[in-house]
Write a structure and sequence with these properties.
The chain is mainly beta. It has helices spanning about 40-45, 180-190, and strands at about 25-35, 50, 50-65, 65-80, 105, 110-115, 115, 120, 125, 135-140, 145, 150-155, 155-160, 175, 205. About 10% of the residues lie in helices and about 35% in strands. A hairpin with a 2-residue loop joins β2 (about 50) and β3. The chain is globular, with a radius of gyration of 16 Å.
Length: about 210
């Protein structure tokens, strides 16, 4: 396993992914974002905030002529909103929802997808502002609505520096990683995500229990 930051003892969920072309050769990439209740073993190497810590896992599986050969994983420190799963439908405060929305735009997306916005591939967008440095990826669905009618939108994976540094500053719900991690993740996007153009985009799962 490749790792940046400390690993945590979480089993990567085996969730249904995209259909693989029968003779596909390349790297199938996806992400998992976890929020974990604090423990010294689970949270060493990332931010603990409001009793939770976060990790962003990037994975890619090497395929040769449709046969999966090996999966590589890189782990980055991560955070989202106030890190508290119970607040995931609190606008501009809680972490991004974990897929329990009633409606979405684009429609019929049941979890997030990395590097796409409103059904179109966007990829990595360079951004030198303190809020996002060195850049960001959108997450589709771009708009989500809870069963009680709460609307949230515009979630991204991004960096940040100075007053928006990962180690000091929460987000309004986006996933933030250290700026150096964003640069490493961009390399994985460019070189090890052959499925980046497959609609509706590479999977980006969010893992925690809904309240």
């Amino acid at each position: 396993m490749q790792a940046e930051g400390s690993a945590i003892s979480l089993e990567v969920a085996q969730l249904a992914g995209p259909a693989i072309p029968s003779n596909f050769s390349g790297d199938l990439g996806w992400n998992d974002f976890y929020l974990e209740p604090y423990s010294s073993s689970a949270c060493s190497g990332t931010v603990t905030y409001n009793g939770y810590c976060g990790w962003l896992y990037n994975h890619y599986t090497v395929y040769v002529s449709g046969i999966a050969k090996h999966t590589y994983t890189t782990i980055f420190p991560g955070r989202s909103g106030d890190n508290m799963p119970k607040d995931h439908w609190v606008v501009n405060l809680g972490p991004l929802p974990n897929g329990d929305w009633a409606n979405s735009a684009p429609a019929n997306l049941y979890h997030f997808h990395w590097g796409w916005e409103l059904g179109s591939q966007v990829g990595f967008v360079s951004d030198t502002s303190d809020t996002y440095y060195p850049g960001k990826w959108p997450l589709d669905p771009w708009y989500v609505t809870s069963s009680s009618g709460v609307n949230r939108s515009s979630f991204m994976i991004h960096g940040g520096i100075n007053a928006h540094d990962f180690w000091t500053t929460p987000t309004n719900g986006c996933i933030r990683a250290p700026s150096t991690s964003i640069s490493s993740l961009d390399s994985l996007w460019v070189y090890n995500t052959s499925n980046k153009s497959w609609s509706p985009g590479p999977d980006n799962y969010v893992h925690y229990s809904a309240p």
